[in-house]
Specification:
Length: 343
């Protein structure tokens, strides 16, 4: 079915109308005036299974003409007065999707790396109810490996390996900015990181047992193009790692703190062996008393981590119930907005 998008297309029809799904295409931008116009024009206007579509540009504090060009190209624009970060921009997009009753949301970078003509392929598993979260993958198909700096390539693979290990599922690309979400995924997601949301999304949805799928795509890297988020690979990796650790801690606090307790106990045991070995050889502790103090301190730290794990596990149960309540509230508000929009 042919669709159009823009400010005039934000009404909320019944979800059963035309048996089609409503799609929100989100483009977070920071000074993307050179590419945003052509990117919006390249978005397919007719997608199988979609009866309503809107293009939403999140202008995250741009100082160029990104917002003006986006509006002239027919997109709805949400402006942030200053740069708030990719995670905050994503949060703004989710709020807009839920308030306007969209069934599917696609997130695509504004720099032209990804081809908007791949949107139908990306949303197909969501439209067909095969997955709740679909991510474009640059590394799923070896034939599609992008030409990128070697350090970036190995950094992406290392991050994917870490997320795969923590989630218990195999993922090939967890940092891609081209993704599709079902309504259930949007309602369920409660992210904390404002710097970036890419890796945290995988953990959040996989821990909640939602279906995740990767779709191979080709990506082009522009000569001289620098990432707006990962301008320093080391700084980006550190901040992303903090978000990942916090997310895992919140969902699996018992495992997280008991692993720290075990690590402290094992290290303390190593120092205890030093003391015992010296005692059996010399009959005294003189010269190695320091190791005994270190061992005792580490055992104490281990016990504290053990207790903290028990306490935070109880708090995690409360947090899980609060998230369920929040998800139900989001669903209720979304349905209410839909009902009001049809009257």
């Amino acid at each position: 079915m042919t669709t159009s998008f823009g400010k005039g297309n934000t009404s909320t029809p019944s979800r059963e109308e035309g048996r089609g799904r409503s799609l929100l295409v989100v483009i977070p931008c920071l000074n993307e005036g050179q590419t945003i116009g052509s990117l919006i024009q390249a978005i397919p206007r007719s997608i199988q299974g979609v009866s309503r579509m809107e293009c939403l540009v999140i202008d995250d504090g741009s100082v160029d003409r990104t917002a003006q060009i986006a509006e002239e190209s027919g997109a709805t624009v949400i402006r942030h007065s200053r740069n708030r970060g990719l995670g905050f921009a994503f949060e703004s997009a989710v709020k807009h999707a839920l308030r306007n009753g969209y069934d599917v949301m696609v997130n695509i970078d504004g720099d032209g790396q990804f081809d908007p003509r791949d949107i139908p392929k990306l949303i197909a598993p969501v439209v067909n109810r095969e997955a709740d979260f679909v991510t474009a993958s640059r590394f799923l198909d070896p034939g599609n490996y992008p030409k990128m700096p070697r350090l970036n390539f190995w950094g992406n693979l290392a991050m994917s390996s870490l997320i795969s290990f923590l989630s218990g599922q195999k993922f090939y690309d967890v940092s891609c900015g081209f993704r599709a979400y079902s309504l259930e995924a949007l309602v369920t997601l409660n992210l904390q990181g404002q710097f970036t949301y890419t890796q945290e999304t995988f953990l959040n949805l996989s821990f909640k047992k939602l279906a995740i799928k990767e779709v191979p795509v080709q990506v082009r890297y522009l000569p001289g193009r620098k990432s707006r988020v990962a301008q320093s690979l080391g700084w980006y990796g550190w901040r992303a790692l903090l978000i990942i650790v916090r997310s895992y801690r919140d969902f699996h606090p018992l495992r997280f703190f008991w692993c720290l307790a075990l690590a402290a106990a094992l290290l303390g045991t190593c120092f205890a062996f030093i003391v015992l070995d010296h005692y059996f050889k010399t009959g005294g502790f003189t010269g190695q008393i320091w190791a005994g103090f270190v061992a005792g301190s580490l055992y104490f730290v281990g016990i504290m981590f053990f207790i903290v794990g028990i306490v935070t596990d109880m708090l995690a149960s409360i947090r899980a119930n609060q998230e369920r309540i929040l998800s139900l509230l989001k669903e209720t508000v979304t349905k209410t907005d839909q009902d009001l929009g049809t009257k």
